[in-house]
């Protein structure tokens, strides 16, 4: 037995580190929920159509200007922009710390409900 290991107490646990590649999508969602946060952190966002397989780079500045900076691309699907395509696109993102993109799919945070669930002021549920 090594001299240094025998002297440590039984409850000693070595420090651990989780690689960024192994972090779950909810963790990444907590880092950049909105379009403005993704833009500030220099995330590379792409969209891919499930029907025609068109891949396009997403311009976060345009989305922020048109839909507002608080817009979220998580769990979002949009119609494909290719002419005569009837498919839907899903969004993928790659933070600068990662080499591979991942799908922007994650469970909704427990402390709030999805944006599409909110009713206009005065409407009944």
Count of DSSP-assigned helices: 4
Strand content: 15-25%
Q: How would the global form be characterised?
A: elongated
Q: Percent helix among the residues?
A: 10-25%
Mean pLDDT: 83
Major sheet summary line: 5 strands, antiparallel
> What are the secondary-structure elements, in order, as H or E?
HHHEEHEEE
Question: What is the number of E strands?
Answer: 5
Distance between the termini: 67 Å
Query: Which ranges are low-confidence, i.e. pLDDT below 50, for 5 or more consecutive residues?
Result: none
Rg, please? 21 Å
Structural class: alpha+beta
Brief write-up:
By secondary structure, this protein is α+β, with helices and mostly antiparallel strands.
Structural commentary:
With 125 residues, the chain is of the alpha+beta class. The model has no long low-confidence stretch (mean pLDDT 83). It has 4 helices and 5 strands, in the order H-H-H-E-E-H-E-E-E. It has a domain of 64 residues.
Keyphrases for this structure?
alpha+beta; 5 strands; about 120 residues; single chain; five-stranded antiparallel β-sheet
Compile the SSE list and pairings:
Elements: H1 3-6, H2 25-31, H3 35-40, E1 44-49, E2 55-57, H4 60-67, E3 77-79, E4 88-94, E5 102-103
Antiparallel strand pairs: 1-2, 1-4, 3-4, 4-5
